[in-house]
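B., you asked whether I could sanity-check this one before it goes into the benchmark set. Here's the sequence:
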Amino acid sequence: MSHDFSYIPAGYHSVTPALTVKDAKAAIEFYSKAFGAVENFILPDPKSGGISHAEFNIGNCAIMISDEYPETGALAPQVGKGGLFIIYVKDVEVAFKQAVEAGAAVLFEPTDQFWGDRTARVADPFGYRWTLAQKVRDMSPEELVGVTAAMFGE
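And here's what the prediction gave me:
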């Protein structure tokens, strides 16, 4: 069975994250340095001088971002309390070092995980957490069930 996704604009996927931060311009600069984000466009807010809407890509994922607009309920998360994003990268150690050098806080260093990925986690200065992941080995659903049961003692 095939699906018709012609209603999705080119360069987007079915789900597109939209971030709210206190300083979208600084966040885009940070994401560029930390994760290699590429800015697509910015719509400035003529009243505040901030950013009402912008879009950038990390890898093949489009991400939307804006400054806070408390009057509409658009509030940035407290630092470390926002959502968690996973970025698959070619080399976790290199990506982790780049993110930390850009100012990300270390949540955990690169570690092999039982499900077949090597991951690290950082927090950005804008409230969000980012897991950097590198596939180390493919595992079937049956293998995952087995290692999960062994991991949790069942």
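One thing to flag: Strands lie at 18-21, 38-44, 51-58, 61-67, 84-88, 105-112, 117-123, 129-135. Otherwise nothing jumped out at me.
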